[in-house]
Design goal:
The protein contains ten helices and ten strands. It has about 270 residues and is of the alpha/beta class. The protein has a single domain, classed as TIM Barrel (Alpha-Beta Barrel). It has an eight-stranded parallel β-sheet. Helix 3 links the parallel strand 5 and strand 6. Helix 1 runs parallel beside helix 9, helix 2 crosses helix 3 and helix 7 packs across helix 8. It starts with a strand and ends in a 19-residue tail after the last helix.
């Protein structure tokens, strides 16, 4: 499995996103993903499936240190004391001694970023997480977080796919040695009927979704596609045996449009 190195972390470039997966379905798909060769599983407090994800990791039979597990602190738990308590609860649900990566799920302007990052650094020093990062941070917020952090930030996880131009945010990540991680990398399924992606896919004997994922990993972007189907797990994994040409990459980049975002939230920052 290819990996991205960032500020001391080695992050498997392909992971399984688990948003919307619950119970036995979630545990089974996590187990199957790991058995297929996935080494990166992404969850969050807000997904309410940490317990199921932990069950799936254990059921795979793989040694704990061979699976890179990410979870995220919900933005209402960012105050000092509250953050540490919520992380302890996450680990109890996961039944894991630590996570590999702990992210701030969304920015929260009502709590000073310095206070939140100090608490995040504390749980890292205590061994509850190997690495820390952020999610849904804009360029300005990322710069602010890096300046305030006493421990290195290793990733910024945000929406990224061919319909959304995230060039500025990716450049900001690179400037700080931070790995960009793309959630909703196939635009929540919207790419399936795309004529251009289908045409490029035919040339490589791949699906539109595989072309999307390849487009991102070829740029060194970590991807965490979510699926509940075992056959889709396999499809998403088969993106390392071909390469897109410079011309194909340019064609795909040109799909970006102003209204390309598919994830919206009332608490979202003002996007770049």
């Amino acid at each position: 499995m290819l990996a991205v190195k960032a500020n001391g972390a080695v992050i498997p470039i392909l992971g399984l996103g688990t948003w919307g997966l619950q119970g036995k379905t979630c545990a089974r798909i996590v187990e199957q993903a790991i058995r297929l060769g996935y080494r990166h599983i992404d969850t969050a407090q807000a997904y309410e499936n940490e317990r199921d994800v932990g069950d799936g990791v254990r059921a795979s039979g793989l040694a704990r240190e061979q699976v890179f597990v990410t979870t995220k602190v919900w933005w209402t738990h960012f105050e000092s004391g509250e953050l540490e308590h919520s992380v302890a609860e996450s680990l109890a649900r996961l039944k894991l001694g630590y996570v590999d990566l702990l992210l701030l799920h969304w920015p929260n302007s009502s709590v000073p970023i310095g206070e939140t990052l100090a608490a995040l650094a504390k749980v890292k020093r205590e061994g509850l997480t190997r690495h820390i990062g952020v999610s849904n941070f804009t360029v300005a917020l990322l710069d602010e977080a890096v300046a305030a952090a006493s421990e290195p930030i290793v990733t910024n996880q945000f929406e990224m796919h061919p319909y959304l131009d995230q060039t500025k945010l990716v450049a900001a990540c690179r400037r700080h040695g931070i790995a960009p991680t793309a959630y909703s990398p196939i635009a929540r399924g919207k790419v399936k009927g795309d004529e251009l992606l289908a045409k490029i896919g035919q040339a490589h004997k791949k699906s539109a979704a595989q072309i999307c994922l390849r487009f991102l990993v070829q740029q060194g972007v970590v991807v965490i596609p979510r699926t509940s189907k075992v056959e889709r797990l396999t499809e998403n994994f088969e993106i390392f045996d071909f390469e897109l040409s410079d011309a194909e990459m340019a064609e795909i980049r040109a799909l970006a449009r102003p209204d390309g975002r598919v994830v919206t939230a009332a608490w979202a920052p003002e996007w770049d």
